[in-house]
Each structure stands twice: as C-alpha cells, then as structure tokens.
C-alpha cells in the first residue's frame, strides 16, 4: 500500500522554484510513496473563525481540508518571504489546524523543505513552518530537512527534477516521511 503525501507549496508564482521542487518530488517519489500537489491554495480565503462555521465553510477551504484529511502525511515546500514563511502557507496551516486537536494535520507526519535565493535556502521560513504546523497538531519530522540555497542561479537552466543532487536529497526526504507513517495508514 502506498503512503499518500500531500504537498503544499508556499509560492503562488508560476515559475516558482519551490513548485518545481514539489514537481521533482512527485516525479521521483520512491516506491511506496505517492506525492499529490495540492492545487488551489490561492483560492483559500484568509482564516477567519467567523466564516469557519459548519455547513458554510468556504468551498476552497473545505476542499483543502477534505484532500488533507485523506493524506497520510504532508510535505510543505516553503520559500522565504522577508525572513519567514509565505502567508499562503501559514493560512493553509491555520485552516488545517481546525477544529483544534482534530484538524486534518493532527497526528500526521510533516516535513518542511524548500529553496530560496539566499545563502541558507530559506531555513528561517522552514523553521517557522515547522513551529506553526507543530502547534497545529502535526508530528513534525524535525530531523528531515532540505534547504537549497541560490535557487535563482541554481535552477536558472535546470529544473530541480533534472538536478541529480536534488533528486537524491528529495527522494531521501520522501523515504523518511514514508517511514514515519504508521503501518496502519
């Protein structure tokens, strides 16, 4: 049985290197793991408890929760915006954290990876994402990390799926996420 890992990409830009990294993960997922890239984070309204009412949750947020509920684990791809994670990724975590203690990420393994232009590859943003999703109830895989620096130059002419070093690293990340999923999943 294959482990279903939902990928949430924190960049909405069409040519996003984090999106490309997620595509590389999906393309090179090892046997026993299936990566699904969630489409539609741009459509999810900012979390507001006033609109998070049973029976009238906005359709895009309800779809995010539904798809996430069917996942065995999560792989978050975070660039770094002004030293932290992008609002779209934080917003997804907020929606998936509710109802508190029983949200779609609750008790499920999560790894956070990414790439950024800076020399550290977005580690601050990824650390913030780990903190937020952990508070949301996920089982954060603290030792499963991949931060690729210099994205603008490194991926100027090469898609991450065609970069042997990246493929090896992201495949190992996925294998570790897969291993963290309980056998009953």
Description:
It is built from six helices and five strands; from the N terminus they run βαβαβαβαβαα. With 185 residues, the protein is of the alpha/beta class. Strand 1, helix 1 and strand 2 (33-37) form a beta-alpha-beta unit.
Task: Present the secondary structure layout.
Elements: E1 3-9, H1 17-27, E2 33-37, H2 59-69, E3 73-77, H3 87-96, E4 109-115, H4 123-135, E5 139-148, H5 151-154, H6 164-180
Parallel strand pairs: 1-2, 1-3, 3-4, 4-5
Described by the principal axes of the CA atoms, the overall outline is globular
Average pLDDT metric = 96
Structural class: alpha/beta
Number of helices: 6
Report strand %. Answer: 15-25%
Number of strands: 5
- Strand arrangement across the biggest beta sheet: 2-1-3-4-5
Sheet with most strands: 5 strands, parallel
What are its keywords?
about 180 residues; alpha/beta; five-stranded parallel sheet; 6 helices; about 35% helix; globular
Summarize the structure.
This protein is α/β, with parallel strands linked by helices and 185 residues long. Helix content is 36%, strand content 18%. The protein contains 6 helices and 5 strands.
């Amino acid at each position: 049985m294959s482990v279903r890992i939902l990928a949430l990409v924190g960049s909405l830009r069409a040519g996003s290197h984090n999106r490309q990294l997620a595509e590389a993960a999906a393309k090179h997922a090892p046997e026993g793991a299936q990566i699904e890239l969630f489409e539609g984070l741009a459509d999810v309204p900012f979390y507001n408890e006033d609109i998070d009412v049973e029976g009238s949750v906005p359709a895009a947020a309800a779809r995010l929760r539904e798809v996430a509920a069917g996942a065995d684990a999560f792989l978050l791809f975070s660039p770094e915006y002004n030293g932290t994670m992008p609002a779209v990724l934080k917003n997804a975590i907020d929606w998936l954290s509710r109802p508190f203690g029983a949200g779609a990420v609750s008790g499920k393994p999560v790894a956070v990876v990414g790439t950024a232009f800076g020399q550290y590859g977005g580690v601050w943003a990824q650390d913030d994402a780990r903190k937020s999703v952990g508070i949301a109830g996920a089982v954060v895989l603290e030792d499963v990390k991949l931060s690729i620096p210099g994205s603008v130059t490194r991926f100027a002419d090469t898609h991450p799926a065609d970069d042997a070093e990246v493929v090896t690293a992201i495949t190992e990340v996925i294998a570790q996420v897969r291993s963290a999923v309980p056998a009953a999943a």
